Known about the structure:
The protein has one helix and no strands. The protein is mainly α and about 45 residues long. It is rod-shaped, with a radius of gyration of 18 Å.
Amino acid sequence: MAKxxxxxxxxxxxxxxxxxxxxxxxxxxxxxxxxxxYFHVINP
Length: 44
């Protein structure tokens, strides 16, 4: 039985996506903020 992730490049990082996760959360927060302004939930 083949192990999962054998073909993925191995690094010493704890998780392969900490930087992308932080950027994605920032972009999601910005998207929610723009949507709230668009739907007049927030009126700047």
